[in-house]
Amino acid sequence: MRQLPVVVLSGLRQSGKSTFLKNEKDLLGSHKYRPLDDFAMLAAARANPESLLEGPTIIDKAQRAPELLAVIKKLVDEDRRPGQYILSGSANLLLLNHVSDTHAGRAVYLPFEPMTLREILGNTSEVPFLVEFMKRPHVRSESRPPIEKSSILAGGMPPVCLR
What average pLDDT does range 116-138 have in this prediction? Predict the structure, then answer.
């Protein structure tokens, strides 16, 4: 967010992308949240994409209105300030047939994974890696305990982990 105008979070459905974007106020507080699973918001995105992109903006479920991507490209080319737009979706925007531009040089693509072992084990007092990385881009060097077979079999999707 400090280097490029667009951050794209993509990952499996129900992995927590929307929850993260709605709840990380310290990190994303100045961004307007625009969920495209809201039919009125989706209609506005399709009819007048510019109306949703005034100021720092989060577009959740961005794959539902690919016309927004061309407008974001235009706006970013006019003003290259970092951290302006955060796009999220369960579809990888780079792989969609109807998306003609990858936003190369304008965007960083971050995969959003299901629940981490830290979350599954209840070690939530520790700052999540993604939040820490977005604030200070570095990778921790300490080692972690190996993942147990039972954790692999259970997976990391929140509804399964939370039972």
Answer: 79
